[in-house]
Amino acid sequence: MKASMLILVVIGSLVLPSSGNSSGTTYTIGGTVSGLSGTGLVLLDNGGNNLPISANGSFTFTRAIADGDTYKVTVLTQPSVPAQTCTVKNGEGTAIAKVTDVEVACEDLTVAFESLYSFDNADGRNPYAGLVRAKNGDLYGTTWAGNHDGNDYSGVVFQITSSGTPTTLYYFCSETNCADGELPYAGLVQGSDGNFYGTTQAGGTDFGCDGYDGCGTIFKITSSGKLTTLYTFCKATPCADGTDPYAALVQGSDGDFYGTTEAGGLGLGNGTVFKITSSGELTTLYKFCLESNCTDGGNPYAALVQGANGNFYGTTWGGGANDGDGTVFEITTGGKLTTLHSFAGTDGAHPEGGLVQGADGNFYGTTNAGGAKGACPGETGCGTVFKITPSGGFSTLYSFCSGSGCPDGQVPNAALVQGSDGSFYGTTEQGGQKGACPKVGACGTIFRITPSGTLTTLYSFCSQGGASCTDGSNPYGALIQDPTDGDFFGTTWAGGASNSGTVFRLSVGLEPF
User: Fold this and answer.
1) In what helix (H) or strand (E) does residue 4 lie, and over which residues does it extend?
2) Which domain range does residue 103 map to?
3) 3-state SS assignment for residue 6
4) What sign does the CA torsion over 385, 387, 388, 390 have?
């Protein structure tokens, strides 16, 4: 019996060689880089073995591969300042000798940035949210604060043309005790009726929350600035209908609007999902932390997106199965919730932005923490970009702060937008080229990322105006692309001529759509 067992082991060792490399020979993978003038280029071999490149000339990956194994050289991070696009030639094959013929060629990317408007506090201050392009071609948005009649935290709704001419449509806290709402954290959505719909984090006619008047509202506003408060949260303690709606609304295919509250609902208040009609009838669809230890998620900051299947998809900042790092979920119009993914730190943590469904049917999003540690100065990673299928198949596409000083950005708070070229575009609140940015962690970036995970930093804020950052700093909101000229528009929370935030325009030469 012992002999037969020994024969089996020997046979197993003969038919299952470890890697096809009985000699133990290994080969290095390398080549040359040309045309590089930017900084921050990072190459990968077989999806790892990160190799930062700082100059033209030859390169060699530090980790060799076994004789007969395959290699594949790709770009993880494209150069910035100036923004460039690098392509790889002869980048994959089978190593049967030392590889030296991989070619990486870089060329400049045309990027044009324009600061369209600087808020001055009297007309609003600190826009957290992005913009919405209306049917008339103008842009509409909100600022979280602004000094109106001595109230420094009222917030406004504004309109701005694509050339930068602004109009203040409404000042919140225009009614006694801010019964009309205050502190609009989220942006607007234009309904099928032509009116705009949105939320305020605080204000309203019912109980106060977080030291403010009221627990938040849902409102409707016409293009000329007539505001109607549709709903005030926390109709009765303990605020089972939710409080603190940080997220924008989305209009469903049924004509109703769907959204989330960050707090309220069950017990300690971990947030809700709701729907509301255009006349103000609200239905609470789900209360988070329904499951033990909040494995179903908690505290959603982000807006929902309706998928092609008619269900809604979203994220929660907390809860989930892994130490409260947040979740991705699916919910039906009837309120049945399915947790698709629980973040675990290394794959991302604490998503504040919502999702976008790509042309391939998958959903893409960001987390403002977690991911590979890299050079991130925090205890955990500095944020990620991820992809998730409608059934929950998850992959991390990119971890921010891949190099010292985080020139590729860190802390992405906003959702992505898919451009007409198929790539995704977004912002990071911090990171980028430090320049004259007076803040710790730099002043934020605009980036592009392909569906396969190659990232290009297109612009680093506080590149103009010295420490005053006249071009803006710290963008929180998502971008939008103008269908008529292909340009992107967005906002920054700070910076500008009065350090109260800005509206900007970015062109990367994309076609209209």
Assistant:
1) helix 2-15
2) 27-108
3) helix
4) positive
